[in-house]
Amino acid sequence: MNRLLLVVAVAPVFALLLGTVIAVTVRFRLGGPGVGPGGGPGGGPGGGRHAVERLAPVLYAATVAGVAFAAAAHTGFHPERLGLTEEGAPAGWVVGVATVGGVLAGVGGYFGELFVAHRAVARRAPRGPGASGPSAMGGAPRAPAGGTRSVGTWTADPRVLITLGLVTGLAEEVLFRGYLLTGLRGSLALWAAVALQAALFSVHHASFGLRAVPAKAVHGLVWGALTVASGSLIPAVAAHLVFQLLVCRRLTRKEAREEAREEAREDEGGATDDRDRAHGSPAVRRPPVAG
User: 10 Å Cβ neighbour count for 203?
Assistant: First the structure.
């Protein structure tokens, strides 16, 4: 069990450490924080912060995919030990029905997160006619989480964003619902194994903000239950990839890209405070979050 947990923990830790090294390097090369691409103040979209945030999703996807490959190699690429299927091929109709359920779970998870996100925005909306300012908004505006900003830097590149989302989703399923859940089931009660992998999966997404943690825990529980019920990883993969595609579609829609360009123009003109500046559109700042 310890080796399985270690493999899962390596992905975010390695990404964090390597991301920190890159961030420090870029910062010093570009002249420190608050220095724009031309050497002037402002830290605009071409600055060091933007460069690091743009690199982060690529780094994370590559890291998770690499760890998933290492996990597969550790099992000798054995489908049963990797959790792709249980001993004895499960009935095709069971996998088929569960896969349909997985697609519905992915769609339901997307709209569930969207509903919660809009409720959170509504609670911070002006409370009365003509209300404005932080007090009227229910508190000072909060900057987007680091993971959200990083994903937002790729909204103008739909193909790259979708590719990163699909690679990450597939690798995470192999790691969590496959390799990890299979190992935990050999040491823990079934319910405990499903719950623990869901908890680790949720913490894995803490870079998207605290609100993402319980949402991803629910995903982990549902997708883990699909894996156990069907005896196959296919339904969970279907659920995760459908969810990722819906999120990418929302983030890359034409209106979102137009809003992102408008925000970039405001940033370059100094119309917004650096504390409130966010790369990407309001659709990015109001997730469902990819991952």
Answer: 14
